[in-house]
Amino acid sequence: MKVTTKKAGIAGLAMFGAAALLAGCASAPDDSGDGGSDTAIDFQPCMVSDAGGFDDKSFNQLGFEGITKAAEELGVEAKTVESKDETEYAPNLTSLVDQGCDLIVTVGFALSAATVESATANPDVEYVIIDDAADNDFDGTVDAENIKPILFDTAQAAFLAGYAAADYTTTNVVGTFGGMNFPTVSIFMDGFKQGVDYYASENGKAVKVVGWDGTDGSFTGGFEANDQARQTAQALIDQNIDVLLPVGGPIYQSAAAAIRDSGREIALIGVDADVFETDPSVGDLLLTSIRKGIDVGTYDAVLAAGNGEFDASPFIGTLENEGVGLAPFHDFESKISDTLPDALDALQASIISGDVVVNSYLSE
């Protein structure tokens, strides 16, 4: 099935600033893995997580894997710091600067303000921020010349997931909820709803999306796997859904617990990583996952910086450059319709060609 992409390259971005960023995008990261060196170099790569931590089985973990792989190939050791909450972002960055870091990778839009402040104060240090444009004044440009944003138009891959969910559902009700209503969260929900609606119009099957109306919806108020996330998932389960997309790092764990408690057959859709691989404990529930190439995007950026080739141009992951995509159906291969894989292949090609338009703040 072609829509299952390989791991290749890779948002607090304001909608009206996206077009300017896209105009200057870098090419897709190279997954050749041949940029390493046998000789130790004078280069110190560093990373700060958001409050999810490096074991979130999602984007923090993927970023950690990317910097670790690059550091190994460069013959150096990465310094990595976990943040327990938002009050630690700025102090963690200051600490890494003081320790002589040449490149600092910050994981997630929550670190945007702290990253811009640190980069502005330390122009000789190079920065990479994952899932954010570092455009806090919303003028369509990165706020410091030494920051490279790595962004993902996940609406495209989520569109495919929505189409698959609409094809799979038997209750004709599917649901989604997020951590907080930020662009990097709602972009998944937007694409998912558009994909469901597209399937309905193309196939004459009335499928309802609950939890997101295109503007607002169900949110937990944070990104922790807790009772609030479980209650939010349960509220959607009570509306007769049989497919659920939680968007917000580890909140999927609470959704999985609610699904198991329900005793019903409800399929889960993962985000960021192929959750079937990162968290096998929920593998039996996963229809698919909406992937971002965070690991390889981070690897590429760190490797380039270590080789003296840091490029601050923003990178936008799309279906075309394989920065985003669907994970395999894994245990659900035998449960999906025979026609779905070919339909998704054709749909992906239509999105890439522009025949099918997927709207997102990164495509405007």
Automatic annotation (TrEMBL):
Topology versus the membrane: Lipid-anchor
Keyword vocabulary terms for this entry: Cell membrane, Lipoprotein, Membrane, Signal
Domain of life: Bacteria
Residue ranges of every copy of the ABC transporter substrate-binding protein PnrA-like domain listed in the record: 46-354
Record PANTHER family: ABC TRANSPORTER GUANOSINE-BINDING PROTEIN NUPN, TRANSCRIPTIONAL ACTIVATOR PROTEIN MED
UniProt similarity note: Belongs to the BMP lipoprotein family.
Name used for this protein in its record: Basic membrane protein A
